[in-house]
Hints:
46% helix, Helicase, Ruva Protein, domain 3, 3 domains, alpha/beta
Amino acid sequence: MTEITTDTDNDPKTTDTLNIGSDEFIFDELKNLFDRVEATKGMPEDLRERIEQMLQRLDRMARLGHYASEFDTLSRYIEVVTSIPWVKQTKDTLDIDRAQKMLDSQHYGMQDVKERILEYLATMTLIDRRGGDAIGNSPVLLMVGLQGVGKTTLARSIADTLDRKFIRIPVGGIGTPLELRGKSKSLPGAEPGQIIKALIKTGVRNPLILLDEIEKASGEASLLADIMAILLEILDPEQNDDFRDHYVDYPVDLSNVLFICSANNTGTLSAALMDRMEVIKMPSYTNEEKVVIARDYLLPKVRKKSGLKEEELNIDPNLWPKIVTPFGYDSGIRSLDRILQSVCRKVAKQIVTEDVSSVYITEENLRQYMPSW
């Protein structure tokens, strides 16, 4: 039971102290909302009391037959607020040897990049061992490189090494700061911002959030400046422990979130934001490196996702240079992955429809399996 003070119907200046329980409400829908609020672990007590006061006012309106629109608004708000992971979190695994093995198993080459990440994790480990704030005292990583060089997969690998939930927020194309900070629940089409949605989707208060392509936010100068300011607030440990989403309208602690950013270039990023981040330049792969990546990393994964067994698809080793550069120039890792997906789909169809047991791709039949653009 929660004790709150409410105005009486007869005299608005008089207050009565009531013990509110779900049985106090006239409709089951209101009872269910109340029970949901009561069952939410870690919700700040003043926020809980505020919502219960809203429910009590809604119950009064229901008794008078006027509550439909307010119920829709409040029920959606309660659904969001009770879905926020106020206390649930995962425990970090800070093991440098394990991180080294995972990075080597998931990424070929990039020794300088992997060394920088291991140094970053080592710093977090040392600070954590000595009782400090490992995240608050570590800079935000900004991975800069061309499309398809592995920025997203590398961020996901960092999350895997730490045993953190991973989620990507595509900042590119965001046209208004409200997409990050949310819209007030009193406005039409109100919803929480992308940050709160990320916490709800992962179900923990300490995921690893990749803010992807942050340099591609709104092309309008004034809006871009506003978005840069919000990003700075989100990434700054001096401010993000009190992040206020317009929809939630209550401070949410982001200090346990590990943010990583990516960009193709840094030309549009503000100086203040750059000062908060540590840049890691992602190099382009050579054709020789791409052959190894395609053959030893991408093909086994794509083949498995396509339902193929290892013996059902094999490729002549001499063909890999042509697959890696189908147009005679660099096509990027992402394009290479799409090429292999197309090859595997065509092989899968052939096995299903033509009763073929296995396919061996040679120079003679390569054109048959390569995607047509």
